[in-house]
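Quarterly update from the structural biology core.
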Amino acid sequence: MYSLIDCNNFYASCERVFNPSLRNVPIVVLSNNDGCVIARSNEAKALGIPMGAVAFQYQHLFKTHGVKVFSANFHLYGDMSHRVMNILSTYSPVSEIYSIDECFLSLHGMKVDYHEYGLDMMRKVKKWTGIPVCVGTAPTKALAKVANRIAKKFPDITHGSYAIDSEEKRIKALKWLSVEDVWGVGRQNAKKLFAIGAKKAYDFTLLPESWVLKNMTIVGLRLQRELKGIPSIEMEEEEKKQSIATTRSFSDDVNTFAELKERLTAYTTAAAEKLRAQNSLCHTMNLFVETNRFKETETYYYKSIQLKLPFATSSTIEMVAFAVMGLKHIYRPHLHYKKAGVILSKFVDADCYQPSLFFNSDPRHKELMKVIDKINATNHNAVRLAGMDKNTFKMRQEHLSPAYTTNINDVIEVRV
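Predicted structure, tokenized:
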């Protein structure tokens, strides 16, 4: 059996944990530079605010209905996700973090009441973090997704935990679920299934495997078998990334080398931190700068450069030095830049890397980076390069809530 635990309206829930006055109030969370809606509370959904809504076009609706607007606080959300996942990992030795707000647990060999086990997870996560979750349990990962959907759709009946633990429940669930809502079907496959009259998930399971394989490839066939109750999608270990990109559009145009250097220093620093987090070293860096393609009064300019490093490294100090070197080659004066970024690739495992005879990363940097990462893990950007501005990405974040759990200066004070 597998359990799929999904946090309810995760971003909005994180904001509510530290501000109880937001309960039952419509909330939206905006993307980088406060551009579009990327998360909504149930109350905001009820107002008809769509996902991806352009924020400035909905300002009147926000004001009329008292919608609370927040800039994306990814430091807070990431830390709260980590806390939730740590709690869930105590319920099974095998887990797979599927996204920032979803986690699969393998319950194979565990003799428990699955409904009650799910309720216990919900109670503990809610008590220890304040985040509400729903739990779906079933013989396969795809059916666990279906069970979770039922748990969330019918809270009065399921109380937030539902188990598909019999053939009767499996068939009933699949006859209820529309085929386009099946995990992994996708829009194009849904059109193919609708065209042959397969409108419900149960209809999909009755199709000949030869048709599914031909029209939906082996991925579709595995999904069909999963819905039949045959485990075909295994738990996955977190794989190391093969490339890491940190890119941003600027809230205001940048027109000096010093400002652009500051931004790329920040982006390279962030990418290097991610690189060290997966214990990798980098051989290649790609940098790019770009002006505003929609600005008709200026000629559009885009330039990139690939740097093949003389040695593999994850040192922020060394990588920033290379980035600045590359920037000097692609920078053009008197232009108004709107976007820049750094992309790292060609990784090697830090534990398996064979040093070169002539050129190598400074060995002192390894321990230095460990200390810096440890300090910054509890107080973001407490230690940074002098060339990096304190406001790392200079994004427009006019509605940003405090970093309650990752910045000592934002910790809530309780006066008694």
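The chain has 14 helices and twelve strands.
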